[in-house]
Write a structure and sequence with these properties.
2 domains; mainly beta; 5-stranded antiparallel β-sheet; Tachylectin-2, Chain A; Jelly Rolls; about 5% helix; disordered N terminus; about 475 residues; 10-stranded mixed β-sheet; elongated
């Protein structure tokens, strides 16, 4: 980790977690994917919500194991790996022929559901008559070419898109390495996500860091850390695990740090770590868990981190199971694509191998949940900015919720107590809480406060102060 970029952020987070210091959430949206805001729970618990399989995307296509879905201002962009000749494998023809045969294909969509393969006219190959090849003849790079849209302020237009790709040679592949040069992650830039230019011939992240980068290694600009961050695959104590590195310029990267996340029995084949688009200070990870001794069966997990070298494993159960179909239990059958995006006013989508699309409500990963018999939940002390409290919640027809604004010591604030709160029921992505004192809480912005909830057959997914 770059001390110059990340130390202030980590010191701020450490200070926030200290019992004597209030959290400073400003007007950020906060999700309950970890226990940062959680203080006291009675009759309530954190509930992981499973995504819903909605069927295959239209024009379903194989997209390898490492796919990326980006959302530009006017379209979705889908990048996926393919082979010039699927019969050429590393087992049958050797690593050199195998990786020479890989290409990166491209599709786009207006809604994330119906996709087209535009004829780009960049590369021609008879195996891909649609002409949707976006990168070819980049040895090793096409195995896991993974782009992102750079949100760094004032980034040059010709570098609006960036990407990393490549793998490292293993010990028995010395002859190929000497012939083709060292591996590692190489950097690319593009103005549109279609026309790509290599930043330099050499890898920007050296091959000795990865062991062996043969996974999806994703980089992005972090608003909260004010630097580029890359989470990549690394073997840790003999298990496939996760490491990270940071950069200010996308060329020079800090020494790698291992990020312990595995349970003792599991490999994490990919990390799929990315900023959540509605709360980019929270990185959401949907790694593939690889069970090597169970026929290489795989499923998808859910983890989070707020930067640094620690993942929260609040939930160790599967996020997406292999399912009833025997196809889901085949060798390495389940990989999540990079990219969780809003696809309607109320839902977001994620994509898996085989053209599968899964949906959840916005912010719907985790909730504070209470049964019909009721429960209570109180936050840690925090300081906010804004004037109105917005919540994302759902209740049953019989359930409800009330919210109380308290001072930092947990005392109800007059006219903003539970008794003053207008009962809340229904199902809304964004609802403003109202009390006897009104809906404006601006008088308490900048002061140390808490929120106290009483819930019955209800889920609270997120909150923010507008």
């Amino acid at each position: 980790m770059s001390l110059s970029t990340s130390l202030p952020f980590l010191l701020l987070l450490a200070a926030s977690l200290h019992a004597a210091d209030p959290l400073r959430i400003g007007s950020r949206r906060e999700l309950f994917v970890d226990r940062l805001l959680v203080d006291e729970m009675s009759g309530t618990f954190l509930k992981l919500h499973e995504p819903t399989l909605t069927g295959t995307v239209k024009d379903a296509r194989p997209h390898g194991h490492y796919a990326t879905v980006l959302k530009a201002s006017d379209k979705f962009q889908f990048y996926y790996r393919a082979d010039k000749d699927p019969g050429v494998t590393w087992k049958t023809h050797g690593i050199e022929a195998y990786h020479d045969g890989e290409v990166t294909l491209y599709a786009e969509s207006k809604d994330g559901i119906s996709w087209t393969k535009p004829k780009l006219g960049l590369y021609e190959h008879p195996s891909f008559p649609e002409g949707n090849i976006v990168l070819m003849n980049e040895f090793l790079v096409n195995h896991n070419f993974t782009p992102f849209i750079d949100t760094k302020p004032e980034v040059p237009e010709h570098e609006r898109y960036k990407a990393l790709g490549g793998i490292a040679f293993q010990a028995h592949q010395t002859a190929v390495r000497e012939k083709r040069g060292p591996g590692g992650l190489k950097a690319f830039v593009s103005p549109d996500g279609i026309h790509w230019t290599k930043v330099r011939p050499e890898a920007v992240i050296p091959e000795e860091w990865g062991k062996y980068f043969d996974s999806q290694n994703y980089a992005f600009w972090s608003e909260s850390e004010n630097c580029y961050v890359c989470y990549f695959r690394r073997f840790i104590k003999g298990m496939r695990g996760i490491a990270r590195t940071t950069s200010l310029d996308f060329v020079h990267w800090s020494p790698p740090e291992e990020v312990p996340a595995n349970l003792d029995f599991e490999h994490l084949y990919t990390s799929c770590t990315q900023p959540y688009f509605r709360a980019p200070h929270i990185y959401v990870a949907t790694p593939t868990r690889f069970m090597e001794k169970r026929g290489a069966a795989t499923d998808i997990l859910f983890m989070t981190t707020r930067g640094g070298n620690h993942f929260e494993r609040e939930f160790t159960q599967s996020f997406i199971r292999p399912g009833l179909s025997k196809d889901g239990w085949l060798n390495r059958a389940n990989y999540a694509a990079i990219g969780i995006h809003q696809t309607s006013e109320t839902e977001m989508s994620m994509f898996l191998t085989g053209g599968r699309r899964y949906t959840q409500r916005l912010d719907g990963f985790v909730s504070v949940n209470a049964p019909l018999s009721g429960g209570k939940f109180r936050t840690k002390p925090f300081v906010f900015s804004g004037s109105k409290l917005e919540i994302n919640y759902a209740t049953s027809a019989a359930g409800q919720m009330r919210v109380e604004l308290q001072d930092g010591e947990g005392r109800p604030i007059q006219e903003f107590s539970l008794a003053d709160c207008e009962p809340i029921w229904g199902d809304h992505i964004a609802r403003i809480v109202k009390w006897k004192g009104g809906e404006t809480v601006e008088a308490y912005a900048g002061k140390v406060v808490r929120l106290h909830f009483e819930l019955s057959d209800a889920d609270l997914f997120s909150l923010k102060f507008q």
